[in-house]
Every structure is written in C-alpha cells, then in structure tokens.
C-alpha cells in the first residue's frame, strides 16, 4: 500500500522507537530532574530492575494499556510484531545508546532508486521550507508577508536540492520525522476495530505526547518554535480532513473512499476519525493572517498529502478565514459550544460567586494545539487579573481565569493599607519583619504590633484561601470536561492563583488517572505548605516541567500564611524538596509579594518554558 510519507519502512520504525524512548525518558524526568546529577549521566530509572516487566510495567507511559505508543506505531505502519520489542527497548536501562542507534537509522536512506531518493529529497526540502515560513510568521506576527517571502526559494527547490549540504539534508529529514510523529500523536486510531491490540485510552493531543516531542526535538536540535509551526500545519491538514469528510458524507461515499484510504495510509498531517469523533482544532482557523499564510503553503502541502490535492487544500485555505468553515472541527473540540470563554461557572462549590475565563493575546482561533491558563492571586483592580500576563510572548492560546475578585482585591488592599501605615514603616526600619522568615522564632515571639497586623489581615486571608481551594476544584472540573479541547494545558499562577493551580492538580489526582491533561505547571509565590500538602501526587499530574518560583525575603507572604510557615514551611519563600519539582530562586529580583504584579513577564522569560531542560540558576534583576 502506498503512503505519502517521505520516510521508508525502517525510518518509520526508528521514528516510532525514538518517540517511545522520549516518552519513557519524559516519565523518568517527572521524578529525576535533568541536570540534577550531570547532564551527561543517565538518570536513575526507578523501574529498571529485572522485575520491572511485572507488574510495574503497567505504570510505564509506553505500556500498551496507556494507549500512547501503539496507536502511533500503527499510524506509522510499523509491523505489529515489532511493537513489543519497541516497548521493551524503551523500558531498558541504557536509553542513550538506543537513541544514537535509532537516530542513525532515521538519517540513513532506504535502498531504492535514484529517482525515488530525489523525489523524497524534494518533498523533505519543501516541507522544511514550509515549516520555516510558518515559524517566521509566528515570530514576526505577520504571517502573510513572511510566508510569501520565505517560500520564494521553494520554487527552485528541485534545482537547488543537489547543492544542499549533507547537514541541510539531515535538517530536512528532522522536520519530516517530527511532522509525521505529531500527526500520529493527534490522530485517534481505534485499534480495537481491527483486532490489533488495546484501544486508545485518550483522545486528541495528549500532554505526555507533547512533552515527549519536546525532548525528541531537543535530541534532533530543532528549535521549539518550528515544532509550533508544525502544530499549526497539522491543524490545517486536520481542517482539510474535516472538509473532505464533510464533502464525502454529502456525496454518500463508500467506506473505501479516498478518505478511508487517507486514514489507513498514515499520511503526514492526517487526523483520523474514531467513533465518528474528529480530533478537532481550536475554533477553526479563523484568523485572516493564518488563512492567507496557509494559502501560500498549499503548493507545498498538497505534494505531501496528494489524496487531498491542491484544490482541496485551496478550498480549506479559503474556508479557514471564516468561522463557519470550522464548525465540524470545533464542535468536538469544545469551541463551537461554550468553550473556555463561555465558561463563567463550571459547577458551584461552596460560596464561590465568580469563576470566568477571559481571552488574552492574539492567538485565538488560529489552530493552536496547546492552551495556557493563567491565574492571578494578588490584585488591586480587576485589570490586575489580565495585565501581568499580557506582555509575555508565547504561541499558546491564552486564557486568564478571573475568580473571586472581591475577596482577592480585599486581602491585597488590606495588606497594602497596613504596609502604608506608620507602624509598618517603623517595623520595617527595625527589621522586625524579617523575624517572620527566621524559621526559629515562633508567633508568640513576634512584636505585638506584628501580631495585630497579622490578625487584621487574617480574616480576609482565610476567606481568600478557602475560595482559592474551591476555585482549584472548579478548574479541575473544567479541564476534566474538556472545555479547553483535546489539547495540552499549561497552568501558571502567582500568589493565591498559584494555590488555585496546586489545588487543581490535587483534585485531578484524587478524581482518578487524569495524567495527560496538564503539560506544564508553574507556581509563583505560592501560599502552599511544603510538607503538609500532597506534592508527589500533584507532580504526577504534570507531564512536563513543574516549577516552584520563590523569594526568600517575601515576608508579606510569611506574615499572612504564618501558621503553615512556622509548622511546615512555605513554597513561596523556600525550595520544595520533592522529586521532580524544579525550584527557581528570584530573591534578587522580588523585593516584596506585590512585586510579582510587575515582574511576571520577566520571570516567565527567565524560566524559558519552551526548553525541555530546567533552569537551575537564580533570577537576577535586568541591567539597563
């Protein structure tokens, strides 16, 4: 059976094995941070013992029961007889040796004729040009012009292919590998229909897949913004798939139609159907810039997906500029109905009155395959819920959660008013505030004026803490209902908002096996006790990086959360000694708790969230 993939059979097998190794390594790094014992060393594997296969093997992301690997291998048309061997290799104790071997296999050409090699080279070059064009558009935010400019050399791709260096050829192959693996990850393939193993557990784009692709891109030395460009191009292909399926449904096509051939063929950029549900893309591709940019990519994409053809892609490029053209895709993605922006209340918990998502940035309805939800927890006005996040440059589809603003603003204002008082100024001059962070002095030894201040703030703070815990449960409910779509989620919160994020992760764990929803989590200045909370279970709910950002001189947080501070420690002012939690000290940057309002963009830039590797150096103030 012919396939439009530029990869040969051995290369597809090697690509699948690399994804398996990346999945296993990413799971290991949930508890063993990369670099914590030397980047050149193999991190220890807790389940690398001889007895790991039974029964602990079921805990591995690469185990067939997880449904993460075998659907991908099937999509790649890897011989089912080889699947168990791939799984066994991924669980082995010497991953880096296998990585090198499979990378070599990926870059080796199949033993075919000169014409086939030339055609494959031209296709890979065209794909690389298309990815570069889209990546340039993402960086400059002017997709139309940059796509057209970057694709100019593609017209002469065939003439110049022979002049490219071996290094360039390897770069083109990298994009072909990542494109096809991403396509396999977002395709919902029901293996049970054909008696080929367990059905897939999750639907859509699993967070664990995205983390594994991050690691694989690192191994291939591919910048993540190119992978984000690939995500949008796969989204475009899925839109084309939806349009084609709609057309064939109207024409009462038989099961042996071109759509069925496409689904079985493992085509680059395909999104297969499972039980009538299409893996959907964010509200379609309604942005005119994306639509026009995609139009420029049509000549390249139709050579990679010839069954759809240029005319089919041209049609979807036109439809991409209109929301109506994306209804079929958006409906199963949560965007055609309420979605996040229509969610003012998931379900009432306690006395929570306000719980609403608001969009920020320009990345909505543009085929983004990942979502960011940002939660403020210290605010003086409602604008402070959104403003701190607006300047951060990211390609995520972004939302701000506005929750219980009445109580958050009340406690923030109470703290501000007390800090402005004469008593507080005198205590600051005497250095009495720093006694809060000493760790030895009990609350009974505090100056009386400091105790009275804490009591003044305490009533408002206790209410805000209670509401943050309940808002966290509501956020978990939203994610479980899939209102963000079948897309990986990045959660970032500061102050009480960080507690909302933490409680959300706890709730996800307590409600069942909900790994695969959250890709990354960042807690900034978190009022969460270090020892009294369920950090390990919460960590397991995050497929990728889990970051605790703290400042050792945040005595405001120490005062307001003094009970937990003195008995169990506090994440917002110290490192968390939990395997897999990345601690980032911003003491040199943050002079007080309210500083986070103006420093969030700088802190997030410092974290370099799009890198797979953790950040181990302290954050220092920018020099002008």
From TrEMBL:
GO terms for cellular component: membrane. It holds the Pfam family DUF726. It is a multi-pass membrane protein. It is found in: Membrane. It comes from Digitaria exilis. It comes from the Eukaryota. Keywords: Membrane, Transmembrane, Transmembrane helix. SUPFAM superfamilies: alpha/beta-Hydrolases. InterPro entries: AB_hydrolase_fold, DUF726. This is Transmembrane and coiled-coil domain-containing protein 4. The keyword ATP-binding does not apply. Residues 38-48 have a biased composition (Basic and acidic residues). Belongs to the TMCO4 family. Residues 35-55 are annotated as: Disordered.
